[in-house]
Design brief:
Helix content is 43%, strand content 13%. The protein has 306 residues and is of the alpha+beta class. The strands form two sheets. The protein has a four-stranded antiparallel β-sheet, with helices on both faces. A two-stranded antiparallel ribbon has the order 1-2. Strand 5 and strand 6 form a beta hairpin. Residues 1-23 and 277-306 have low confidence and may be disordered.
Length: 306
């Protein structure tokens, strides 16, 4: 019986794991009650919690991983003292984690390591050609309650008063220093404001513009094409996508070659073709609570860098 769930298991696997250390580099990084914690322990932990570390810079990732491994060791030691390793189902748990370790090793050797950086570079070069640089505008504004107030502001500006100084004095938007909104692209501002800003030439000042927040007087300081992302900025995101694709190909091949029998009647029915199936959580994801790094944001697409 061949089963093809809508969402393949390996597509959810961790694809941003740090490379495992060579044996010669497997230095001791800490000790807990006399037990050595080595660099390889951090690397294995990284392969377990992987994507949830992406919000941290590399130096912080090691710190978070060390905390995680230390807490693992503390709880494992406490479990050993409580003789939990002698409970009836402990051998089954060990068997499961041994198979899991074999799965991880296979994934590393046959899937992740089968996606060279050159393939990611090729995808980048193909996609970057399709991206049209998006224009962005740097503007200042002065926000007031009424059209008459906005007209009075505009009259003072036309007489030569400094826009930034007047913004500090009159604008309701205290978050924009001197009225400066920085750079923005289309779709980031309310449409009336956006239309007025993009229609202005650099250095020009708009007539009063109404939005739900009040009346704005806008000055465009600069226009430019938004820089396209470099390969290094998006390399990991592209590699992650390619690894997922490779995982789907490999697992499909393994499924096609396997004899899979679902014995449980309810599970068998639930896995019939055409029935909806959800994506399972990545195996081995750390449980919520102590020692678990927070979930991360999705990696940016090729065109998503600022």
């Amino acid at each position: 019986m061949t089963i093809r769930p809508a969402s393949l298991l390996f597509a959810a696997l961790i694809v941003l794991a740090l490379p495992l250390s060579a044996a010669a580099d497997d230095t001791v990084v800490a000790r807990v009650n006399g037990v050595d914690i080595k660099q390889s322990d951090l690397d294995f932990a990284a392969s377990e919690v992987g994507p949830r570390l992406s919000n941290y810079v590399p130096a912080d990732r090691r710190r978070v991983l060390l905390q995680y491994v230390i807490e693992n060791e503390l709880m494992a030691g406490a479990g050993e003292q409580g003789k939990l390793n002698e409970t009836p189902n402990f051998s089954d748990r060990l068997k499961y984690h041994q198979r899991r370790a074999l799965r991880d090793a296979y994934f590393e050797s046959s899937i992740r390591n089968a996606v060279p950086e050159a393939d990611a570079k090729k995808v980048y070069e193909e996609k970057i050609k399709e991206i049209k640089p998006e224009q962005e505008v740097r503007a200042r504004h002065i926000l007031v309650d009424t059209e008459d107030d906005a007209k009075a502001i505009l009259e003072r500006l036309n007489k030569g008063e400094d826009f930034a100084t007047l913004a500090k004095e009159k604008s309701k938007d205290s978050n924009a220093e001197g009225g400066d909104l920085g750079f923005f692209t289309r779709g980031q501002m309310l449409k009336p404001f956006e239309d007025a800003a993009f229609a202005l030439d650099v250095g020009k000042i708009s007539d009063p513009v109404q939005t739900q927040f009040g009346w704005h007087v806008i000055k465009v300081e600069e226009k430019r094409d938004q820089a396209l992302p470099s390969f290094d900025q998006v390399k990991e995101a592209i590699i992650a996508q390619l690894v997922q694709q490779k995982a789907q190909e490999v697992v499909t091949g393994l499924r096609d070659a396997a004899n899979i029998e679902i014995v449980d009647p309810e599970l068998k029915k639930s896995m019939e073709p055409g029935r909806p199936s959800g994506m399972p959580a990545p195996p081995g994801a750390a449980p919520a609570g102590a020692g678990s790094p927070p979930e991360s944001a999705p990696a940016p697409p090729v065109g998503g860098a600022n």
